[in-house]
UniProtKB/TrEMBL annotation:
Full protein name: Cytochrome P450
InterPro entries documented for this protein: Cyt_P450, Cyt_P450_CS, Cyt_P450_E_grp-I, Cyt_P450_sf, Plant_Cytochrome_P450_Monoox
Source organism per UniProt: Hibiscus sabdariffa
Signal peptide: 1-24
Database matches in PANTHER family: CYTOCHROME P450 82C3-RELATED, CYTOCHROME P450, FAMILY 81, SUBFAMILY K, POLYPEPTIDE 1-RELATED
Length: 510
């Protein structure tokens, strides 16, 4: 047995040496010194986007790394991004296979993680044309407006009616808002409405299930760790999947059993049936393409993408506005000018509030929810920036670095919504990437933006806002994969004197 281990180790190191020597002959992108087996793992720290930004500043905007068994290409220039999603768009149209994708995404059966091919094309078509089209997003305006009204009511209840500001937990309120919008869009019903404590517990359970992404983990780079059950990662993922699947199956079964409505008739009435109901109608016509696993995987993505990133953006937006009161006052003046104080702003008002749109664009530039876009995977050899990129390379687009590049943006670290006024030239192409680019760009961007604009606008229209204490709001990000504030936002809130009557109407109507 000892001799067998010796021979296996010898074969492994010979294979590794040959592989490394072969790579040196290729015209690979710039790369730091790597160690045997672990590659560049020792150069990567958390948060990952910051350590990668440091390496990019040393080696240039196209960086080649190796971590365990995976090759990684990191790009941080608009020209390189254009090449990846222009000339090489189909080559990079795939997603990498990951342990989390296998376990949590029903073996990659959603449009976000499905391999590029017939399944992905079908799911993408359904998502973009049948569910998340601009027409359907507009038809969902009543859901957004109703839940933003509930959000305003909660703020009013939490703030003092006598004009003395009170501290409110903004992350909690934003999370409630996005959860209830997602639930109504997906299933037709919002969360628990019994009492505040039941609501809080329901939100906590919802977040434990769905505020968790589907990224890579160390076992994807070192498969041997999966075999030995490293840190119980696979076991925890399977338990999370079990809990998610149980929740999603009950949701789907409940709608399947209780619905007696004709989706076609609802469409004729101009209404939008819930997301799951639409998928079940597709299943009746094409059960092979819309299996129960596909329906649950697509529902899962709606919950993950429709809640977490929206909460992050709203929290960063309010934090920046509290630190820049002159911008806050300009947004308020725009809303008062176009909407007034007699009613709450609605979806149709957003087109007349361009500066509010500039603020949100600038927030997404400085704090994109995914500073590293979801990874892509090369299906064959290609070239980027004159360098050879081997087949099977994982592509990471560093949106955060591009958004803060002084050669791309004027004063890139400053909060300047005015940069988006006028022709929006800087927003075009591959310079502005909060929702990705190419075939895998986020199809739900319009829906998420509408909710962010509506909620932020309503909060500014109806309430006065102040920082808690004399210091600026702490803008330190957390160490996770996604860009979340390390310290949840708390702010002092009091009703706008001119809107007290309107706010009481929201309180009495619920």
């Amino acid at each position: 047995m000892e001799n067998l281990h010796y021979y296996l180790c010898a074969i492994f190191f010979i294979f590794l040496t040959i592989k490394l020597l072969t790579q040196r002959k290729q015209n690979l992108p710039p790369s730091p010194f790597s160690l045997p087996i672990i590659g560049h793992l020792h150069r990567l720290k958390f948060p990952l986007y910051k350590s990668l930004a440091t390496l990019l500043s040393e080696y240039g905007p196209i960086l080649y790394l190796r971590v365990g068994s995976r090759r990684i290409l990191v790009v941080s220039s608009p020209s390189a991004v254009e090449e990846c999603f222009g000339k090489n768009d189909i080559i990079f149209a795939n997603r990498p296979q990951t342990m989390a994708g296998d376990i949590l995404m029903y073996n990659h059966r959603s449009y976000v993680w499905a391999p590029y091919g017939p399944l992905w094309r079908n799911l993408r078509r359904v998502s973009v044309v049948e569910i998340l089209s601009s027409f359907n997003v507009q038809k969902l305006s009543s859901i957004r407006e109703e839940e933003v009204g509930n959000f305003v009511r909660r703020l009013f209840e939490a703030s003092a009616a006598n004009g003395s500001p009170r501290k409110v937990d903004m992350r909690y309120l934003f999370s409630l808002l996005t959860m209830n919008v997602s639930l109504k869009v997906v299933s037709g019903k919002r969360g628990v409405e019994a009492d505040k404590e039941a609501e809080r517990m329901f939100l906590q359970e919802f977040k434990s299930l769905f505020f968790v992404g589907v990224g890579t983990n160390i076992c994807d780079f070192f498969p041997v760790l999966k075999w030995i059950g490293f840190q119980g990662i696979e076991k925890r993922l399977k338990e999370l999947h079990r809990r998610r699947d149980e929740y999603l199956q009950k949701l789907v079964d409940g709608i399947r059993l209780n619905t007696s409505r004709d989706v076609a008739a609802i469409k004729e009435e101009g209404k939008n049936p819930p997301f799951i109901e639409k998928l079940l109608s597709f299943q009746e016509k094409d059960p092979e393409s819309f299996s129960n696993e596909v329906i649950k995987a697509m529902t899962l993505i709606m919950f993950i993408a429709g809640t977490e990133s929206t909460v992050f953006t709203l929290e960063w937006a309010m934090s920046l506005l509290l630190n820049h009161p002159e911008v806050l006052e300009r947004v308020r003046a725009e809303i008062v000018s176009h909407v007034g104080n007699e009613r709450l702003l609605n979806d149709s008002d957003l087109a007349n509030l361009p500066y509010l749109g500039c603020v949100v664009n600038e927030v997404l530039r400085l704090y994109p929810p995914a500073p590293l876009l979801l990874p892509h995977y090369s299906s064959e050899d290609c070239t980027v920036g004159g360098y050879e990129v081997p087949k099977g390379t994982l592509l990471m687009v560093h949106a955060w670095a591009i958004h803060r590049d002084p050669s791309v943006w004027d004063e890139p670290t400053k909060f300047k919504p005015e940069r988006f006024e006028g022709s929006f030239e800087e927003k075009e192409g591959s310079k502005y990437l909060p929702f990705g680019l190419g075939r895998r760009a986020c199809p739900g961007a319009a829906m998420g933006l509408r909710l962010i604009l509506l909620a932020l606008g309503a909060a500014i229209q109806c309430f006065e806002w102040e920082k808690v204490g004399p210091d600026k709001v702490d803008m330190t990000p957390g160490n996770g994969t996604f860009l979340l504030k390390a310290i949840p936002l708390e702010a002092l809130c009091s009703p706008q004197p001119g809107l007290i009557k309107l706010l009481y109407q929201f309180q009495t109507s619920n």
